[in-house]
Amino acid sequence: MVRPRKNRIVESEPKVTYFKPQAVPLSQLQEVILTVDELETIRLSDLTGMNQTHSAHRMGFHQSTFQRTLASARQKISDAIVNGKSIKIQGGAYIMPGGDTTGPAEAGGRGMGRGRKAGFGGASAICKCPACGHEQPHMRGQPCIELKCPKCKAQMIRG
Which residue in 64, 100, 126, 141 has a CA-CA distance of 20 to 30 Å to 81? Predict the structure, then answer.
């Protein structure tokens, strides 16, 4: 039994979904089907110039899968151009991160991370007295709850 394909993350839907050679009637053309996720690999790799590892990460799968998908897309496009076939863009296993079939993923909601943006995430680096508000630096390996406030002798908290 074949494992179902994992959905790929596609940041933008194609504006145009059909290409054909000029002055050739549709009835005389053969069609090449290019999936939306194959088009996204072409966009990320060839149009934006992004490397395969970073592109694969953005689409939510491994670099080797990205490379195979990109090779398939390039082969289909080459076949259509060289042999005078039309290209129809449709289907594929993909999701749009905006949820409403628009744009890139939302930026928030994942915390500060580890070493990114302004801080390092995790708990605060100070111990605070809930009674008088006195603050002192947190000492690694010594829980704030075990400390007493030097001013009012109340139990300190991490804060």
Answer: 64
* pTM above threshold 0.90: no
- Describe the chain by its helix, strand, coil percentages, rounded to 5: 30, 15, 55
Q: Closest Cα to residue 34, out of 114, 83, 90?
A: 90
pLDDT-based confidence at residue 93 (cuts at 50, 70, 90): confident
| pLDDT tens per residue, range 7-63 | 888 988 888 999 999 988 888 999 999 999 999 999 999 999 999 999 999 998 899
Tell which residue, 34, 27, 23, 22, has the closest CA to residue 87.
34
The residues, ordered by sequence, that sit 6+ positions from 106 with a Cβ below 8 Å of its Cβ are: 97, 98
Taken as a whole, the chain contains a residue count of 159
Burial 104-124 (b: 16+ CB within 10 A, else e): eeeeeeeeeeeeeeeeeeeee
**Separation in Å, CA 49 to CA 46, 69, 148:** 5, 16, 58
Q: Where are the domains of the chain?
A: 8-95, 123-159
